[in-house]
Write a structure and sequence with these properties.
Blueprint: E1 3-6, E2 11-14, E3 18-19, H1 32-44, E4 49-51, H2 60-69, E5 77-82, E6 84-87, E7 90-96, H3 100-114, E8 119-124, H4 133-145, E9 149-155, H5 159-168, E10 173-177, H6 189-196, E11 199-203, H7 235-255, H8 259-270, E12 274-276, H9 283-290, H10 299-308, H11 321-324
Parallel strand pairs: 3-4, 4-5, 5-8, 8-9, 9-10, 10-11, 11-12
Antiparallel strand pairs: 1-2, 6-7
Helix pairs in contact: 1-2, 1-9, 3-4, 4-5, 7-8, 7-10
Length: 329
């Protein structure tokens, strides 16, 4: 697995990371033992970049990741996020908080749950519309000065916010959804990251599993799977998006790889400063994703993929109407 610079602050990470969210919530049943084995196997395969957040669970995903990485903590880059506020007694409720005092208390909580002395990459999960980004980032920069955090980042912000934040304190990374079916970052964000020397971390690079070709009908989604409420998995949207995935699957078959590997290779082919973090809780799919590091796409193949799956071809928004309001702040 290739290890490369994550941004311009001296942090290193594997070219493909592991998103750990689904190990604790959102994608059906959980199995902590299996998830820990998957994280350990990822490390064995050369993955050194692991992503979590305090809101996953809430809180339980950081605890799980902390258990799994204990024996190889010094060999990896651990990223976590704060800013989306949840109450374990009412987990469906959501809030956003970027106030300086909350930045500090959230970091202390994450350090304790992860059982680490410092967090390698600490993100603001969503911008707080009631707190200037300069204030939030200023508080995050203090964590760096105190040695509790090595680098800081943002998630799902617009170019203006990105520039304001970076001018306040150098950002290591920006994390935003990016895949064949979520290409909003191409509208200025990727260009800004490249200009400013900020790594781009692509979450859900497999379209929340849709691009794997494994989901054939709505009923394939298990009870408790949040995708059942996602617009892209609903009614006509599902059928239209499945047709796009079938086209990708045909190209993958021709190339001799899986649809997942083709979709992930496409993300990696866009820019060298992009780090995809496909999420999985199963070793089988982890190994499949990691093998993508050895797959390259030719210019002809990239044109072919673009032809069958052009930008804005996907049907439906990424999140519900309420969820979309927190993006691109």
């Amino acid at each position: 697995m290739k290890i490369k610079a994550l941004g311009s602050q001296g942090i290193q990470a594997s070219a493909i990371g592991l998103g750990c969210m689904g190990m604790s919530e959102f994608y059906g049943e959980q199995n902590e033992t299996e998830s820990i084995r998957t994280i350990v196997r990822a490390h064995d395969l050369g993955v050194s970049f692991f992503d979590t957040a305090d809101m996953y669970g809430p809180y339980t995903n950081e605890i799980l990741v902390g258990k799994a990485i204990r024996s190889f903590r010094k060999e990896i880059t651990i990223a976590t996020k704060f800013g989306i506020v949840r109450d374990p007694s009412n987990p469906k409720a959501r809030g956003v908080n970027g106030r300086p005092e909350y930045v500090k208390s959230s970091c202390e909580g994450s350090l304790k749950r992860l059982n680490v002395e410092a967090i390698d990459l600490y993100y603001l999960h969503r911008k707080d519309p009631d707190t200037p980004i300069e204030e939030t980032v200023g508080a995050m920069s203090q964590l760096v000065k105190e040695g509790k955090v090595r680098g800081i980042g943002l998630s799902e912000v617009n170019v203006e916010t990105l520039r304001k934040a970076h001018a306040t304190f150098p950002l290591t990374a920006l994390q935003t959804e990016y895949s064949l079916w979520s290409r909003d970052p191409e509208d200025g964000i990727l260009e800004a990251c490249k200009e400013l020397g900020i790594a781009f971390v692509a979450y859900s690079p497999l379209g929340r599993g849709f691009l794997t070709g494994q989901i054939k009908k709505f009923e394939d989604l298990s009870t408790g799977d949040f995708r059942k409420t996602s617009p892209r998995f609903q009614g006509e949207n599902f059928d239209k998006n499945l047709a796009l995935v079938n086209e990708v699957s045909s190209i993958a078959k021709e190339k001799g790889c899986t649809p997942s590997q083709l979709a992930l290779a496409w993300v990696m082919a866009q820019e060298d400063f992009i780090f995809p973090i496909p999420g999985t809780k199963r070793i089988k799919y982890l190994e499949e994703n990691v093998q993508t590091a050895d797959i390259s796409l030719s210019a002809r193949e990239l044109v072919q993929i673009e032809k069958v799956f052009p930008k804005n071809a996907v049907s439906g928004s990424r999140y519900s109407e309420a969820g979309m309001k927190s993006l691109n702040q």
